[in-house]
Amino acid sequence: MEYPLIRTEGINKYFPGVHALKNIDFDLKVGEVHTLLGENGAGKSTLIKILSGLYEPEEGKIFLDDKETVFHNAKAALDSGISVIYQELNLSLNISITENIFFGRLNPNKFGFINWKELHTEAKKWMSKIGLNVSPSMKVKYLGTAQQQLLEIAKALATNAKVIIMDEPTSALSPHEIKILFDIIRDLKSKGIGIIYVSHKLDELYEIGDRVTVFRDGHKIETLNVADTTPDSLIKSMVGREIISTIDRKDESTPDFMLEVKDVSTNLVDSVSFDIKKGEIIGFSGLMGAGKTEISRALFGLDAMTAGSIVIEGTEYKQVTPELCAACGIGYVPEDRKATGLFLDLSVRDNISIATMKQLKKGPFIDFDKQAETVQRLIDRLSIKTPTQLQKTRNLSGGNQQKVILARWLLHSNLKLLIVDEPTRGIDVGAKQEIYSILDDLSKRGIAIIIMSSEMPELITMCDRILVMKLGRLNAILNKDEISQERIMEAAVM
Amino acid sequence: MNAKNDNLVKRIFAADQFALVLALIVIFVFFSAATEYFLTGQNISNIFRQVSINLVAGVGMTVLLLIGDVDLSIGSLVALVGVACVATTNATQSVFVGIVVGIAVGVGVGFVNGKIVTGFGINSLIATLGMMSVIRGAVYIITNAVAVQVTVPTFTLIGSGNVFGVIPIPIVISLGLFIVFFIVLRYTAFGRYIYAAGDNPEAAKASGLNVNKLKMYTFIICSTLAAVAGLILTARTNSAQPNSGSGLEFTVIAAVILGGTSLSGGKGSLIGSLIGVFILQLVNTGLVMMNVSSFWQEVVRGSVIILAVVLDTARQRKQEIASSKLTQQLALENASKETT
């Protein structure tokens, strides 16, 4: 009998505060396209990284041709015939196609020289398999995106890959280029190569997929033959998680507009318009790269607006700056708290009071007593777990770090609007609930809140309206009575 | 009781400046023992007088390094300030006008440096490397590479005069500026903003700070203090030397880094810079007194700096490992909580 190319048994993977994969059994047959489906953070990428040797699972086994294997690093997986083509292409742009194909295997002859003629000929052979008809000595940067994508496949083939993993390979391709890619995939299938294909686009799945596995919250929900599914049933099993929350949110919005956004464009966002009233909570949904973070950055003046305007409490601005926003009572909690939110080597006290130092001054100096007292009040109110105020924020857990950034804005004596991007990413369930109730509490006091989130249950629990982004544009606005996970997913992918 | 003492000892050992102070003491004791004239009132007073130029420039450089930038043009600026100050003093016969013009040159150069860095997003190392060359060239053009003598007799007072007849004016100026900026960094919002913007400029923007404006201020502070250093140097030599201040930028940056200020911003202190400046000065003076050739002095000075930075890096890595262990432990606890 024919064994699967690759098979996993009971894979478990943990990250700080997250159980990322739970008992995953998975297999890829010879000459099959197996598609992976699931929301952001459902576990697809983690599985891919385990199969390609980037992560080692805490528990579970991997079998290649029914022989148990352990990959200690990416090279081990590559040597076993598993190649990955990531969304962000992994090519060296300033060197030749040949060098990219044979990267790390430019074996010199006994005199220490590389036989370029031979290598170029070899490269040409792999390139012809994928229909890439240019000179192999050309620098990769002169290739188009689609050609670079094809080159990645050639690279994989040249390593004698038996399994090729493609992570959203079509996100940067035109319809014509997608067609070429699919032809190549069919050709690879016929040669017995197995392909693991990750995509958010359901139509692609129906065109190219043989089987589909749906992930949700680190669980494998089901593996089905694509022919036995419908788009509706797949969407249902992607989002079918129950909503666990203790928050019973009532619409607290008032008739007064806090913010009106008129046709705002940036380099990454296209003509977005919406408004938010005082005390209202609105949410932005959409797939990764749909433009949620980009909107939040534009609103807080971190990315320049190329068109449109923002009206803050009746005053219209063509361009805003973080300084202006903070002065107007707008707070911002960025997505990646370590990279763009916190001063990791500064104390909890400095981190909390940095945006509101002006309130804490006595003459030209900081009033340290007042600062310590105010900061302590917030530490108590948000129950931030830190030994002292002078602890470096680096040493706090993710949930407490997140609360530190929230506290930074809660300290603002005139806070009117809070923009929070992925407020609960990577933090444990308990801390999540605490953050939800803090946000709900703020809105009861008339503060408007904008939440950018890739977790639909979070948005559904918290938001009075949900705006769905797709490819930098606003694709749908759902009012409270229209909100459901299915409708959000529909607007995000269709 | 014993435990308390242990704690105190531990705290002293763990203090940021412990290694530095120890080094300072060791060097001081070594040269006092090795040479006859090191430990004399005259020599100590000289050391203080000489240290003042590096200290003033070092204070400004510390502020700039804390926000994550560097200024290589201060050595050339010292010469330009000297020329501008001496020329206007001679022309107007007013020391006051000369000083004002000298300071103004400092402010102006800082403004231009800041604009180039913030306006075009150019790395400050490169921008000020260019400026270093531009200014030095300009000084040679203006002076024809000939020194300009001061014709107003009261001018030398800045360099050699005393306050109350005993304390040299350069020391008063440098310690005064040191104290002012010590207070600014520690007790004002502006000071905390500089640390924050240096630690993580993105987070500073996300906290509503105008990072570019802060950078402009720090560039101006650095150049202005370098201009003050230039005025002291000019007064001590009583003339504007076209090649004065060459290499000053490296001595000053070395002293500040030696004092524990990070090149990448957000970490460091003026106390550290003070100690760093003194260590380099002691080494210099001591080697001169031991009749070590100036070539070997350079070698020793460079080695001291490399050694200091190596030790500091090792200490930081140790801290990082400790903190990452803590984080991992927390993660494991969380994971086990979830599975149970």
CATH architecture of the largest domain in chain A: 3-Layer(aba) Sandwich
Q: Please list the strands of the largest sheet of chain B in the order they lie side by side.
A: 1-4
**Largest sheet entry of chain B:** 2 strands, antiparallel
Give the helix tally of chain A. 17
Between the first and last Cα atoms of chain B, what is the distance in angstroms? 43 Å
- Beta-strand percentage range of chain B: under 5%
- The name of the CATH topology of the largest domain in chain A is Rossmann fold
Helix content percent band of chain A: 25-40%
Describe the structure.
The complex is a heterodimer of chains A (494) and B (340). Helices cover 33% and strands 25% of the residues of chain A. Chain A is α/β, with parallel strands linked by helices and 494 residues long. Chain A folds into 2 domains: 6-239, Rossmann fold (3-Layer(aba) Sandwich), CATH 3.40.50.300; 257-493, Rossmann fold (3-Layer(aba) Sandwich), CATH 3.40.50.300. In chain A, the strands form 5 sheets. A 6-stranded mixed sheet of chain A has the order 6-7-8-3-9-10, with helices on both faces. The longest helix of chain A is centred in the middle third of the chain and has 16 residues, at 175-190. Chain A is elongated, with a radius of gyration of 26 Å. Chain B has 340 residues and is mostly helical. Chain B has helices spanning 2-14, 18-34, 41-66, 74-92, 95-120, 124-143, 157-160, 169-187, 189-199, 201-206, 211-237, 248-258, 270-289, 294-339, and strands at 148-149, 162-163, 167-168, 239-240. In chain B, helix 3 (41-66) packs parallel to helix 8 (169-187), helix 3 (41-66) crosses helix 12 (248-258) and helix 4 runs parallel beside helix 6 (124-143). Chain B is globular. Chain A binds chain B through residues 14-19, 300, 302, 321-323, 325-327, 332-334, 339-346, 350, 354-355, 357-358, 360-361, 364-366, 392, 394-395, 397, 408, 428-429, and chain B through 183, 187-189, 192-193, 195-196, 199-200, 202-210, 266-267, 323, 326-328, 330-331, 334-335, 337-339.
